[in-house]
Amino acid sequence: MIFENKDQLKEKCAKIIEVDGQDISILDESKLRKKLIDDLIYTKVFSADKAAQEAACWIIRRAARALGIYSASIQSLYEAMGRKEVSGFSVPAINIRMITYDTAQAIFRAAMKAKAGPVIFEIARSEIDYTLQRPSEYMCAIKAAAIKTGYQGPVFVQGDHFQINAKKYAADATKETQTVKNLIWEAIDAGFYNIDIDTSTLVDLSKATIKEQQETNYRLAAELTTMIRDLEPEGITVSVGGEIGEVGGKNSTVEELGAFMEGYLETLKEHGPSLKGISKISVQTGTTHGGVPLADGTVAKVKIDFDVLRKLSDVARAKYGLAGAVQHGASTLPDEAFDRFPAVETAEVHLATGFQNMVYDSAVFPDDLREKMYQYLKTNFQGEWKEKDTEEQFIYKTRKKGFGPFKLELWHLPAKTRDKMGAELEKQFSFLFDKLKITGKQDVVKKYISAVEVPLELPAAFKS
């Protein structure tokens, strides 16, 4: 159920949880997991009452902490990878665009069965907008899923592609930069302790030298890093990522990595001599976000330059102490490609569209709802339909934008339908965890990641 107001919420929570000062005590863990957590996350996402939303969010986050579930930065583990103390696996970073509560449960189930190492949950600036998931909601859905499944330990949530829009930056640089700064503040406040800065959109290949081409990129990345260091909670070093090549563009080079890092570190020192820099670097090796759809709606095979990926990762670690290079746009690659990422010591692999495709194309996804969503896309995104694109190509490119407007219908699909899709997703997550070699790596996380207590302000509903 969705609580209509804070009083109804408090009534239903009685005898299951108890507010204890600035925290809560869990009186009945079984009832919390079985039903109340469902009601709390649905209230956070769908209640029309803001006070009920805020109260539900606070309870979810504090209940998670009481059960040993906590937001964490992956910084210390990535530093160990940079020192070559840890190797042999690539960290999956999973963007959840749809049915987030159910999808996150599938991830946790797969991770627990595999006794897996680190898994990152992430959402990009663009996804926040078109999936209608603000950072607070996204975090609550992840934490609620952890509670539901019985997971315990760190939860790595990441702001992916917190990106400067090049056109908006050209029109008003101050306004566009401030928009990204506001998003960073909102994300950290929600418990995102991993942030990928993407100012690679501002790389200017028309400039004479590589350092000049990267200058706006590294200067703005340093400025945003400085802001993150000012905002991060006491005891936490937010893991920050940089980017040198826009995904879908030309492949990155070692020279570009050097030019970016030298300029970035020089600029960061100007902001503060002891400021900690980025922990990883995103590069371009031949992929595009979502893949390239063919006329029949299938996805073209992509050839990744794994030699470039290896060289960039090696230099990133040896020269700059980074965890290594980050690969974007990987989820639509053929299955046989994934075990090559740990083989070339890729630090992190970003995965998104493939899971979206699994949901849309599932045999149990209601045909009438799919058709309704596609019709919505054809009506509302007609301006994005390129003349050369078939209908199948248009739908493939735009169907990610159907999740936000139809979030209510998707979250309220029959439980059997969501369970079936969840099982399909869980199987794929298990496959990827095995391929990326994080299976059985739980002890690595325990060794390098520890809980840090971060105060969370009591909501108005409980102050009285």
Provide an overview of this structure:
- The chain has 20 helices and eleven strands.
- With 464 residues, it is of the alpha/beta class.
- It folds into three domains: 6-67, no CATH class; 72-359 and 422-448, TIM Barrel; 364-411, no CATH class.
- The strands form two sheets. It has an eight-stranded parallel β-barrel with strand order 4-5-6-7-8-9-10-11, surrounded by five helices. A two-stranded antiparallel ribbon has the order 1-2.
- The longest helix is centred in the middle third of the chain and has 22 residues, at 210-231.
- The radius of gyration is 22 Å and the shape is globular.
- The mean pLDDT is 94.
Topology:
Elements: H1 6-13, E1 17-20, E2 23-26, H2 29-46, H3 50-66, E3 69-71, H4 75-82, E4 91-95, H5 100-114, E5 120-124, H6 125-130, H7 135-149, E6 153-163, H8 166-171, H9 173-190, E7 194-198, H10 210-231, E8 239-243, H11 254-271, E9 280-283, H12 306-320, E10 325-327, H13 340-343, E11 348-351, H14 353-360, H15 367-380, H16 391-398, H17 407-411, H18 415-435, H19 442-448, H20 460-463
Parallel strand pairs: 3-6, 4-5, 4-11, 5-6, 6-7, 7-8, 8-9, 9-10, 10-11
Antiparallel strand pairs: 1-2
Helix pairs in contact: 2-3, 2-7, 3-7, 5-7, 5-18, 9-10, 10-11
What is the CATH class name of the largest domain? Alpha Beta
Provide the structure class. alpha/beta
Mean pLDDT: 94
List unreliable stretches of 5+ residues: none
Arrangement of strands in the largest sheet: 4-5-6-7-8-9-10-11
Largest sheet: 8 strands, parallel, barrel
CATH superfamily of the largest domain: Aldolase class I
Strand content: 5-15%
Q: Based on the coordinates given, report the CATH architecture of the largest domain.
A: Alpha-Beta Barrel
What integer value in Å does the Rg equal? 22 Å
**H/I helix tally:** 20
Distance between the termini: 25 Å
Count of beta strands: 11
Please tell me what the overall shape is.
Answer: globular
CATH fold naming of the largest domain: TIM Barrel
Assembly state:
single chain
Helix fraction by DSSP (H/I, runs of at least 4)? 40-55%
How many domain units? Answer: 3
